[in-house]
Design goal:
The chain is built from 33 helices and 25 strands. The protein has 919 residues and is an alpha+beta fold. A hairpin with a 2-residue loop joins strand 15 and strand 16. The longest helix is centred in the middle third of the chain and has 41 residues. InterPro entries: ATP_grasp_subdomain_1 (IPR013815), PEP-util_enz_mobile_dom (IPR008279), PEP_Utilizing_Enz (IPR051549), Phosphohistidine_dom_sf (IPR036637), PPDK_AMP/ATP-bd (IPR002192).
Length: 919
């Protein structure tokens, strides 16, 4: 910086106040509150030595001084604060009034002097770009791009000051005001700086992404380029060139030359104009290979400086490359952590998609699953540091399982892809797509040691499956499973009760979790797997003609299963509904009051005492369940009864007026009877020819085993949630102790920490103040909660895009056929079963369903979910209830509206919107 510039910088301050202008060289990322996101990034790059055109920022202190001159400011902000983001017309009126008032406000003389002084020091004869830089844009996790205005090729003092004023006023454009109102950003807290930068007059300009924004690959640089100023590209006026380059090798992977119909050029007197390009020019490459190499190298350096993928605006003037902006690419899903410990490509599957609960989870809930999962565990575990699964990685506050060792196995890899292709089509297709990449194949011989560990784990399970398929009496399965579950729950309760509250009890809880599934899998999984395998054997042998029977018989076998604990819970919810139906006052109470208040008041209305007695019995058996129950932090029915009350109320609507008591149980019994009849037909049809007796015997055995084993499918989850309930009590007890010691503000904050962190805090001589860490982790969780998790991804960030099906009617939404049948009815989109009521006879449309959602199935006519496969929870329960279901329907909750009439084809796997519905 020259002596004159230094003098001006000092002069731009008022004694004891923030500076009114700051040159780029005096700005770093820490100055974001003073210069906004755009200004902070430009200053950071300039200080790091990147080729940023010279310039300065008019700080938020100048903006505050400008606002002070508007006498109507408090009234205007009150109108803005009242906006809810839904009333577009109200937002438009408030924004227009604010802009009009600010357009009349005087420009403070000190601000004008500071701006013109900095401008003259840099060269008043040049052309200037004047850009808005809000304090709520270009942030690490939200760009807010394009919310405020930019003015190009500004020349002269009057034009410069006018552009600065217009930038300030643009903080209150209709789109900016509405966006902030919808996003929950307070209007008073967002301020505006103005970037004034020497105008580059480029031959070529564009945008560079240091990671592919479409596929997510971190190793691919994607570049859009056009002629002239970049405004033509960002405004969508041209079809820009697209170049994709391998970041590591520099190889040009893809070139798409766009039809660049025009270029925006600067006028000598200021402003811009559109130049129509000739045919030869518009279809010529804007960048040659040398320019691409220079651009990629620049992008890599900027990404390395910031430590994360960047969206970079660049331009080339007289052969020299300039960077005029960079911001984080906020659309990329985070990579799984920890990163692979080898150089090969790894492939991950979303654990949440298997569990039909894809929401973000806090750190403790994630650690619970790293302790539970018995695969590929950390070595050298001790009682104070139990083993955790290395296969469970974290991405976006969700668990992703590293499937690489299994997929790379020459035999097991094919089996897994084949099985998943059948039971979870999208997941299987996605894994196959990523596993076919050359980068994955090059690592095909790694991970063998881990694979041997996996093999040692599964061999005992396979042996037990074979014993059940051919030796064990199927009727023994359920008593054995139930006895084992009761003994494990009792053992866990005794172990936790014996430990001292606080750190000792948390240590014991951690040990319980680390042992639970490694033991339970060996005891419980063979029973379920033998049922699934027996069912698949029947299906395959019937379809090949080895055994007799029909497709209808095979479908009937999966309905009315015996002993399913989740179905039994749902039927119990139906029983509760029956207890309310004869009493209108009780029904009205449950409809009109919040759940907890309604239950407290129920004792005083007719039918209430008997209902409450049944309610208490229900909670005694199922109170530890609830929506999202695989997440330790989520409330259970005993904590939050609203989902159950909503399910009961849904069964009391006009469509259920003719229902009799016990109709839901009669329906389930009828399905079971049909299944038994189908079983007999299948066995009888197999008894033909010389080997008929043997085939009929196998058919009978496998029919019994299939129904018994599939009926036990929910028992491991039932064991898990019962143990989690005991662990959850210990965790919340520890949270209460930390609140008493002043380390936490509320018990719920305990879920934001890992076990070892909580133990250390509990046993510290002086309790640490964890509140700052709470806010940081809560903010991370809230950001990640807004992300849409992919079902599979690669370690370089690639998320495969699957080809659309061609065998569906025009306009239909395709998915996976999960439960046979076709139904038409009114859709009910439910995002939260605690706050939305599914009425009897409606079709449930949901992002996902787990056992905590299934009380809704008692009343549903059909099911549509955004995630799932043939063997995921919602599909199995839908088949058992005999309701048509289609799962893995991308964007179903956005593309279908409540009240629309839809047709669900659960046989062929698609949904048709027939019309109607609220806008």
């Amino acid at each position: 910086m020259s002596a004159a510039e230094s003098l001006h910088f000092s002069a731009s301050r008022t004694s004891g106040t923030e500076p009114l202008t700051l040159p780029f060289e005096h700005i770093s990322a820490a100055d974001l509150p003073s210069v906004g996101g755009k200004g902070a990034n430009l200053g950071e790059m300039a200080r790091a030595g990147f080729p940023v055109p010279p310039g300065f920022c008019v700080t938020t202190a100048a903006f505050d001084a400008f606002l002070t001159g508007c006498g109507e400011l408090q009234t205007l902000y009150a109108s803005l604060d009242a906006l809810d983001g839904k009333d577009i017309e109200a937002a438009r009126r408030a924004a227009e009034s604010t802009r009009a008032a600010l357009s009349r406000a005087p420009l403070p003389p000190a601000v004008a002097d500071a701006v013109l002084g900095a401008w003259r020091n840099l060269g008043a004869e040049a052309s200037w770009a004047v850009r808005s830089s809000a304090t709520a844009e270009d942030l690490p996790d939200a760009s807010f791009a394009g919310q405020q205005d930019t003015y190009l090729n500004i020349r002269g003092a009057d034009a410069l000051l006018d552009a600065v004023r217009r930038c300030w006023v643009s903080l209150f454009t209709d789109r900016a005001v509405l966006y902030r109102a919808k996003s929950g950003f307070g209007h008073r807290g967002v301020k505006l700086s103005v970037v004034i930068q020497r105008m580059v007059l480029p031959e070529v300009s564009g945008i560079l992404f240091t990671a592919d924004p479409i596929t997510g690959r971190r190793g691919t640089v994607s570049i859009d380029a056009g002629f002239g100023l970049g405004e033509a590209l960002v405004s969508g006026l041209i079809n820009a060139d697209l170049y994709k380059v391998d970041k590591a090798t520099g190889e040009l992977l893809e070139v798409q030359v766009g039809d660049k119909a025009l270029a925006i050029r600067p006028k000598p007197e200021g402003g811009t104009w559109e130049e129509r390009l000739s045919e030869d020019t518009r279809r010529a490459r804007a960048l040659d290979d040398a320019a691409l190499r220079e651009l990629v190298a620049m992008g890599v350096r900027i990404e390395k400086h910031y430590g994360k993928p960047q969206d970079i605006e660049w331009c080339i003037e007289a052969g020299k490359l300039y960077v005029v902006q960079t911001r984080p690419i906020t659309s990329l899903y985070p990579l799984p952590e920890p990163a692979p410990d080898d150089e090969g490509l790894h492939v991950y599957a979303s654990f949440g998609h298997f569990q039909m609960m894809t929401d973000a989870m806090p750190p403790l809930a994630i650690q619970v699953w790293k302790l539970l999962l018995p695969f590929d565990r950390t070595p050298l575990a001790t009682p104070d540091a139990p083993a955790e699964s290395r296969a469970a990685t974290i991405a976006g506050s969700r668990i992703y399982l590293d499937t690489t060792p299994m997929l790379r196995h020459p035999v097991l890899g094919r089996v897994i892809r084949s099985v998943l292709g059948h039971v979870y089509e999208d997941l299987g297709r996605g894994l196959s797509t990523l596993a076919s990449r050359p980068a994955f194949q090059r690592g095909a011989h790694s991970g063998r040691a881990r694979m041997r560990v996996v093999g040692r784990f599964f061999l005992p399970i396979i042996a037990r499956v074979l014993a059940r398929l051919f030796v064990m009496e199927p009727s023994q399965l359920r008593p054995r499973v139930e006895s084992y579950i009761e003994s494990r729950v009792a053992e866990t309760r005794a172990r936790l009760a014996a430990a001292t509250p606080g750190g000792a009890r948390l240590r014991e809880a951690r040990r319980v979790l680390s042992e639970l599934l490694s033991q339970a899998f060996t005891h419980l999984m063979p029973n379920i797997l033998s049922g699934v395998i027996a069912n698949r054997l029947l299906v395959n042998l019937v379809r090949r003609g080895v055994l007799g029977g029909t497709e209808e018989d095979l479908s009937a076998l999966e309905r009315g299963l015996p002993g399913n604990v989740t179905t039994e819970m749902d039927l119990a919810v139906g029983d509760l509904t029956d207890r309310v139906r004869p009493y209108p006052a009780l029904a009205a109470l449950l409809r009109s009051r919040p759940a907890t208040e309604a239950l407290a008041a129920a004792r005083d209305v007719e039918g209430g005492p008997a209902f409450l007695e049944a309610w208490r019995a229900f909670l005694e058996r199922y109170g530890m369940r609830g929506p999202g129950e695989v997440d330790l932090s989520r409330p259970r029915y005993q904590d939050e009864p609203a989902p159950l009350i909503a399910a009961i109320v849904g069964g009391l609507g006009p469509a259920s007026a003719g229902r009799s008591a016990g109709e839901h149980r009669a329906h389930h019994a009828a399905l079971a009877a049909k299944a038994e009849a189908a079983s007999e037909r299948l066995v009888t049809a197999s008894r033909r020819g010389l080997t008929g007796g043997m085939r009929a015997g196998l058919a009978r055995r496998w029919v019994r085993l299939a129904r018994a084993g599939m009926g036990l499918r929910e028992h491991p989850k039932f064991l898990l949630v019962r143990v989690l309930a005991l662990v959850r009590d210990a965790v919340r007890e520890a949270g209460a102790l930390l609140v008493q010691r002043g380390a936490l503000s509320s018990v719920d904050e305990v879920y934001l920490f890992r076990f070892e962190e909580l133990i250390a805090a509990l046993e510290a001589t002086q309790a640490p103040d964890l509140r700052a860490l709470v806010e940081e982790r809560r903010a991370t969780l809230q950001r990640n909660a807004k992300r849409a998790p992919p079902f599979v991804m690669a370690s370089d960030g690639e998320i495969p895009s699957l080809a659309a099906r061609e065998d569906v009617p025009p306009g239909a939404l395709s998915g996976t056929a999960a439960s046979a049948g076709v139904v038409e009815g009114l859709a009910r989109v439910v995002l939260d079963p605690a706050s939305e009521v599914l009425h009897a006879g409606e079709i449930l449309v949901a992002p996902h369903t787990d056992p905590g959602w299934t009380p809704l199935f008692v009343h549903a006519a059909g099911l549509v979910t955004e995630v799932g496969g043939l063997m995921t929870h919602g599909s199995v329960v839908a088949r058992e209830y005999g309701i048509p279901a289609v799962v893995s329907v991308a964007g179903a909750t956005q593309r279908i509206r409540t009240g629309q009439r839809i047709r669900v084809d659960g046989t062929r796997g698609f949904v048709e919107v027939l019309g109607g519905g609220a806008a």
